[in-house]
Write a structure and sequence with these properties.
Distance between the termini: 51 Å
Number of helices: 20
Largest sheet: 7 strands, mixed
Shape: globular
Oligomer: single chain
Structural class: alpha/beta
Radius of gyration: 27 Å
Helix content: 25-40%
Strand content: 15-25%
Strand order of the largest sheet: 3-2-4-5-7-6-12
Length: about 575
């Protein structure tokens, strides 16, 4: 018996492999990223990074329609981007099995909101499976393909940060590849024009009803009989907290959370004196159960916000206050740009020039906080450019003299390029700065279409941002070293005072990229230091102010980028070759 301790994400990848998946497409997004990185190590599976989640779903859907099992992976906000094809694919159905893994982020550990995938799935009429352990994560993926093919539907596997990144024992099995399904042309099924869609909507409704009926007998929905005085309806990682706090209670653990097994739930509620629905985020299960006239408790006891815990449940049920690890004082460690980060250099110039930035999703979002204090907005992927355009149309060209849009290289390819095309098309002015650090940095250094490598590490064509921007009609495109502070300042001043659209591509690799060589360290000559504090304004964590007012550079942290040296007017900071 081959067993291994696996992360939830690792188990999901293993499940896809064992299920015979042939095609996987994804866009990196914490907490889902590792699924594709691990799946790419299986040589039998074609795995790729797509420029965004919409494209990923469409690629996987094409593979499924052609007749093989496919996978698409993303985080919860990525599902927003992918919703356009997702809603329609619920109508068309599939051919080969199709599973979409969506990782929610209760507690907003690394996201801009705390939405609940189950709400979108209900609206889209898609079945949702939610595992509670790594073993279930693997098994539910495989079961998802069975459901997908039996009921002719894409299936969502919902996970959360806690499950994605926690470990438990998984029993591995061999890969079994089902025979490819033959493709047969079926216009009324796969071409969603109004006449066809009307008929397919009826199919979707019938499928929902059939799934709700059949799921009462699905093994993933487990009734654990215990004390008939107290019972819980729960799912996912929340189930683990119920078992820890109330091991004797009766539990209906739902592995399929959409559509709900109505008859099974009715039977469970009638068998227990008091029933509590314990679910993270929105009252998706609770509201449906209450709408059936069943008496249960839920969000009147618990919050809609953040990650749940055993302590929360214990406190709500028993008023327990013995929660030592939640009371323990933890040092405040706010996120900060790394030493040697090229984004810091760009933001230091913008700060000096007192220029506001319409921001975007990525490491560079940290430019919003002290001491850089540059970013004024951060909405979603690609929105920095669109928002800047809207500001100009609202306030005029003069308003933009104190504004720029900043966007990362991967984010620009994700959805920023569409926004830039819109600016060109609608005769906009303004400055867009592409922060090209040669990677998808925020999620752990994944490749993208401009890095020259695929997910599997193969060499490929690297998109040239300068040529791309010029091709779509931007006349003023400048490439510059992100650490060329004087050059950046000149370029930003020039573009801000102009009346045309300008793109500045600030290039320097992420300091944490594998293979990076740092031949220098920066050191301070205390005798020359005038204690002016200019080097502290860039917010580099390697620089510390000493008791006597001078500064010191931590040599274990310093990457020798020289940004601090650029701001020292007295030559007190030197680059020293290692």
């Amino acid at each position: 018996m081959n067993k291994k301790i696996m992360l939830g994400n690792e188990a999901i990848a293993r499940g896809a492999y064992e299920a015979g998946v042939k095609v996987s497409s994804a866009y990196p997004g914490t907490p889902s990223t590792e699924i594709s990185e691990i799946l790419a190590k299986y040589g039998e599976v074609y795995a790729e990074w797509a420029p965004n989640e919409k494209v990923a779903v469409e690629v996987a859907a094409g593979a499924a329609i052609a007749g093989v099992r496919s996978l698409a992976c993303m985080k919860h906000v990525g599902l927003n981007v992918a919703s356009d094809p997702i809603y329609t694919l619920a109508y068309t159905g599939i051919n080969g099995g199709f599973v979409v893994v969506v990782a929610d982020d209760p507690g907003i550990a690394s996201s801009q909101n705390e939405q609940d995938t189950r709400m979108i799935a209900r609206s889209a009429h898609l079945p949702v499976l939610e595992p509670s352990t790594s073993q279930e994560a693997k098994d539910f993926v495989k079961f998802g393909y069975e459901i997908s093919e039996k009921y002719d539907t894409p299936v969502i596997l919902r996970t959360t940060t806690k499950l994605s990144h926690s470990q438990s024992v998984v029993e591995m099995q061999d890969r079994v590849v089902p025979e490819d399904k033959a493709y047969e042309r079926n216009v009324s099924k796969y071409v969603m024009m109004p006449a066809g869609a009307i008929g397919r909507h009826k199919v979707v409704e019938a499928r929902d009803n059939k799934l709700a009926e059949d799921s009462c007998n699905f093994a993933v929905n487990k009734w654990e009989k215990g004390d008939n005085k107290l019972g819980f309806i729960t799912s996912g990682i929340a189930y683990q907290y119920v078992k820890e706090v109330c091991p004797e209670a009766s539990v209906l653990k739902l592995g399929m959370v959409n559509p709900l097994p109505k008859k099974l739930i009715e039977e469970f509620v009638s068998s227990v004196e008091e029933v509590i629905v314990f679910e993270e985020l929105e009252p998706v299960i609770e509201e449906q159960v209450k709408s059936w006239g069943l008496k249960v408790k839920g969000k009147e006891l618990f919050t809609k916000q953040g990650e749940y815990s055993a302590s929360m449940l214990k406190s709500a049920l028993f008023g327990a206050t013995d929660l030592p690890y939640e009371k323990a004082a933890v040092p405040n460690r706010p996120p900060i740009l790394c030493p040697g980060c090229p984004h810091r250099s760009v933001f230091s110039v913008l700060n000096k020039l007192k220029i506001h930035a319409s921001g975007d999703i990525g490491c560079y979002t940290l430019g919003a906080v002290a001491p850089l204090n540059v970013l004024d907005t951060c909405i979603c992927m690609g929105a920095s450019i669109s928002a800047l355009h809207g500001m100009e149309k609202a306030k005029g060209k003069e308003f933009l003299k104190n504004w720029v849009a900043v966007i990362g290289d991967s984010t620009f390819l994700h959805t920023g390029i569409n926004s830039l095309i819109n600016m060109v098309y609608n005769k906009a002015t303004g400055t867009v700065i592409i922060l090209d650090n040669r990677t998808t940095g925020m999620t752990g250094h994944q490749e993208h279409a401009a890095t020259g490598k695929t997910l599997k590490g193969e060499q490929t064509y690297a998109i040239n941002f300068t040529e791309l921007c010029k091709t779509i009609g931007v006349k003023n495109v400048y490439e510059i070293d992100a650490f060329d502070v004087k050059g950046l300042e000149q370029a930003i001043k020039q573009s801000a005072n102009g009346n045309e659209l300008c793109v500045i591509i600030a290039k320097a690799p992420c300091a944490l990229l594998k293979g990076q060589v740092f031949p220098y360290k920066c050191k301070v000559d205390k005798e020359s230091c005038k204690k002016c504090g200019m080097c502290l304004k860039i917010g580099c964590p390697a620089i510390t102010k000493m008791a006597d007012g001078t500064v010191q550079i931590n040599q274990t942290m310093c990457n020798g980028c020289g940004l601090c040296q650029s701001y020292c007017k007295f030559g007190a900071i030197k680059k020293v070759e290692i």
